[in-house]
C-alpha cells in the first residue's frame, strides 16, 4: 500500500486492531443467521508526510449507501455546536443573502438549517440517500453524490462557487484525499473561505483514543500533515481552532494562495510548533500506542467480568462506531456481559451491533431493566448523556467510560 497523499510505500504500522466488521453495519434478526464479513483494521504511518491511514478495504460505496444509520441531528450537543458555528461565521465574515454556503457531507441538514434560517443560500453535498432525504424534508437542497474535483468543476460551470465551503468530519472519510482537496480549491470563490473540522491525531495519541479507528475513517490527521496537503493544492491555512468535539478536534480555515485579504493568524505557527515538540514529525511518537491499547482492552474485559461475578447488570448507551470498535477489539460476542445497548436513533433500534450482535433498544428499556452500570460508548458525549439519564440515581445506577482509562461516575 502506498500513502494516499505522497505515494510513499507504507512500511510502518501505527496500530493493528486485527479484523472487524464495519462499525456501522447494523444487523437485522434475519442477518444474524448469515455470514458476517470482517475486514483488516490496521493503520500505517507514512515516514515522509506522517499521514496515518487505513487501506480502503471496505469500499466507501458500501459504507455510505442508502441505509447509512448515522443522523447528526440526534445529538443535542452537536446541534448546539452547529448553531454556535453558524453564529460565529456570520459574525466574523458577514455572510448574508448574497453569499453562498456549500457543505460537503451535509448529512440530514443539521448545520445548513441554521444558515438557511438567516436567509443565506445553501447547498449540501451528501452521498447517503436517506440522510439527504431527511435534509430535503427541512427544505435544504442537496446533491446526492460524493464530492470530487469533477463535481466541483460542474458547480463552477454553473457559477456556484462557495463564499463559505464547509467540510466537517469528512476529510478523514475520503479515500482520494488529493482529488478531494483539489475539488475544494475549484469550488471555492476567489475570496471564499474553507473551514474543515476533524479529530486531532495528537489527541488520539495522547489519550489512546483507539476506538475512533474504524473503516469509515481512511485517514487520521495532524495539523502539520493537513497543512502539507492543503498547500500542495495552492491553498493556505490562515487560522486554526482547537475544539472539544469528538474528544479533541481541529477547525482549520483555508483560502486561495493569492488571496491577500485574510492575514495568517499566529495560532497557525503556534500549533505547528506544538505538534513538532510533541514529536509528530518523528516515527518514535507513533510506536508506543499499541501497548496502551492492550492495557485499556484488559481493563474493559476485567471490569465486565468482575461486575457480572458480583451479580450486577450492565448495559451500554450509544450504538456508536466507537463502541463497536471497542467491543470487537475485545472479542465480545453476544449479550452475556452487556445485556443490550440503548440508542436515541430509531434507525438503529431493533437491530443488532455488528460483530458482537448485542441488541439495540430505545431508552424506555433503561427504567424497565434498572441496570447497575451504563457503559457510555460515545465518551465524548458523556456529559450530555449523564444529564439525560440522571434518573438512574433512583436505583443507585452508575455510569462508566474506559477511554483513556476506566472512570466510574455517580449521577
Automatic annotation (TrEMBL):
EC category name: transferase
Keyword NADP: no
Superkingdom per UniProt: Bacteria
Pfam families linked to this entry: Methyltransf_13, Methyltransf_14, Methyltransf_23
Residues covered by the Methyltransferase putative zinc binding domain: 3-64
Protein name: Class I SAM-dependent methyltransferase
Organism: Rhodocytophaga aerolata
Top-level taxonomy: Bacteria, Pseudomonadati, Bacteroidota, Cytophagia, Cytophagales
PANTHER family given in the database record: BLL5978 PROTEIN, TRANS-ACONITATE 2-METHYLTRANSFERASE-RELATED
Amino acid at each position: 500500500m502506498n500513502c494516499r497523499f505522497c505515494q510513499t510505500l507504507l512500511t510502518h504500522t501505527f496500530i493493528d486492531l486485527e479484523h472487524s466488521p464495519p462499525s456501522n453495519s447494523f444487523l437485522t434478526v434475519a442477518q444474524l443467521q448469515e455470514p458476517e464479513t470482517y475486514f483488516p483494521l490496521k493503520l500505517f504511518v507514512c515516514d515522509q508526510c506522517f499521514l496515518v491511514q487505513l487501506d480502503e478495504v471496505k469500499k466507501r460505496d458500501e459504507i455510505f449507501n442508502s441505509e447509512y444509520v448515522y443522523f447528526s441531528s440526534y445529538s443535542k450537543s452537536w446541534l448546539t455546536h452547529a448553531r454556535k458555528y453558524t453564529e460565529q461565521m456570520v459574525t466574523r465574515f458577514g455572510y448574508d443573502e448574497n453569499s453562498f454556503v456549500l457543505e460537503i457531507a451535509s448529512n440530514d441538514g443539521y448545520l445548513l438549517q441554521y444558515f438557511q434560517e438567516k436567509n443565506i443560500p445553501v447547498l449540501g453535498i451528501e452521498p447517503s440517500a436517506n440522510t439527504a432525504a431527511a435534509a430535503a424534508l427541512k427544505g435544504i437542497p442537496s446533491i446526492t453524490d460524493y464530492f470530487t474535483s469533477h463535481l466541483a468543476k460542474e458547480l463552477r460551470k454553473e457559477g456556484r462557487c462557495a463564499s463559505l465551503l464547509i467540510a466537517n468530519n469528512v476529510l478523514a472519510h475520503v479515500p482520494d484525499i488529493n482529488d478531494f482537496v483539489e475539488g475544494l480549491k475549484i469550488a471555492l470563490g476567489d475570496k471564499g473561505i474553507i473551514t474543515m473540522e476533524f479529530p486531532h491525531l495528537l489527541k488520539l495519541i495522547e489519550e489512546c483514543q483507539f476506538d475512533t479507528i474504524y473503516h469509515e475513517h481512511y485517514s487520521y490527521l495532524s495539523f502539520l500533515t493537513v497543512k502539507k496537503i492543503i498547500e500542495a493544492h495552492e491553498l493556505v491555512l490562515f487560522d486554526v481552532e482547537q475544539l472539544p468535539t469528538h474528544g479533541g478536534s481541529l477547525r482549520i480555515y483555508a483560502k486561495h494562495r493569492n488571496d491577500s485579504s485574510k492575514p495568517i493568524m499566529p495560532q497557525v505557527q503556534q500549533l505547528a510548533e506544538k505538534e513538532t515538540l510533541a514529536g509528530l514529525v518523528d516515527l518514535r511518537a507513533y510506536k508506543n500506542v499499541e501497548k496502551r491499547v492492550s492495557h485499556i482492552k484488559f481493563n474493559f474485559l476485567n471490569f465486565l467480568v468482575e461486575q457480572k461475578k458480583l451479580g450486577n447488570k450492565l448495559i451500554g448507551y450509544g450504538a456508536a462506531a466507537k463502541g463497536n470498535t471497542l467491543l470487537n477489539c475485545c472479542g465480545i460476542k453476544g449479550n452475556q456481559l452487556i445485556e443490550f445497548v440503548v440508542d436515541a436513533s430509531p434507525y438503529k433500534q431493533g437491530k443488532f451491533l455488528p460483530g458482537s450482535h448485542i441488541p439495540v433498544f430505545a431508552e424506555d428499556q433503561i427504567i424497565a431493566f434498572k441496570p447497575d452500570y451504563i457503559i457510555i460508548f460515545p465518551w465524548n458525549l458523556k456529559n450530555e448523556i449523564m444529564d439525560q439519564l440522571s434518573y438512574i440515581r433512583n436505583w443507585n445506577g452508575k455510569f462508566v467510560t474506559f477511554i483513556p482509562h476506566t472512570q466510574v461516575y455517580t449521577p
